[in-house]
């Protein structure tokens, strides 16, 4: 959920706090000077009425009138300072984004747009005033988000530590099917030679060598004759040296080599159960990009790409040859047009649609994106386990939200402390 929605997704009455001229009065005056801006007495009165009405509706008690007024004024000061920051950094909320936000408010309040308008009117606001208040809330929130994000620093070690804690919380029910290779130290043998052999085996396994065959051939461990297969175990059932190495790795992960007192070890996670896994589809595609110019029109770019398709289908040239020679995407052109295995979400919408829907081996018709005109061919698709990455992403989000709330509070305090604020009341000044 967007951060600004925490401010907006409340009862409509709460949204009227800070609305300029929400309740017209015969005579208005400046109640507070905030830097080079002002808060009018009508703003304060409207906010007071709104808070009191909401408290009555929800059965909540309120402090004494003078205390309540002080709190309301402080809220309006903070809102004004944030709006001034939004103006300073040039935040602009266009009508399209505003309309979408208002539609979201109606939906989340289980209202139609017409019902929302009626609710706004019941609060004594015109719909135009309501729209501008939402625009101000959004711009202030966007400014706060942008300025506070700059203050947040999350170290990779922090993410890894929290991800391990999250992993431990689920480990009680998780089972791993593991296989093991042990290379033992022999009398008089140089331990560096054993380590070098272990690293060589890991390289071969990562290149696709059969783990069971390698275990039967090289392992001196207790399960060597079973191809190194230890079967299904929870971490608390494993040898400690195994459990210490397993940190929610994905199915198929090769771990090691790692050392013990008797030699070097290699583990493979054959399978995992009891853990909610996250799988994504990666696509290996290649493309040719032609960019229209003053000389080359859109129609000319399409014609050129259609000619490439004809030449490929007739065997006159290969996709790779044409990509190297003509594609105006230098990075992929040097790789025969190949983009490598990527999740489709990485691409712009038009390109994403093509790589998600094209059958493997089929070349698309020419299509346009913001980058120019393309033809694309999907070379392969594969399912990839991203459970470990998902856990780290979750850890990052938790850390970010924690630090954001801390830094946002500190930022607001600093903003308030550095502002010129003069509250005008009964000819008394209060800075």
Automatic annotation (TrEMBL):
Indicate the transmembrane segments per the record: none
Q: Where in the cell is it found?
A: Periplasm
Molecular function, one GO term: unfolded protein binding
For this UniProt entry, what is the primary localization, expressed as one broad class?
periplasm
What are the GO cellular component annotations?
outer membrane-bounded periplasmic space
As given in the record, the signal peptide range reads: 1-22
Keyword vocabulary terms for this entry: Chaperone, Isomerase, Periplasm, Repeat, Rotamase, Signal
Residues annotated as domain PpiC: 173-271, 280-380
Report any one BP term from Gene Ontology: protein stabilization
Assigned EC number: 5.2.1.8
User: What domain of life is recorded for the organism?
Assistant: Bacteria
Name of the protein in question? Chaperone SurA
Taxonomic source organism: Vibrio ostreae
UniProt lists the gene as surA
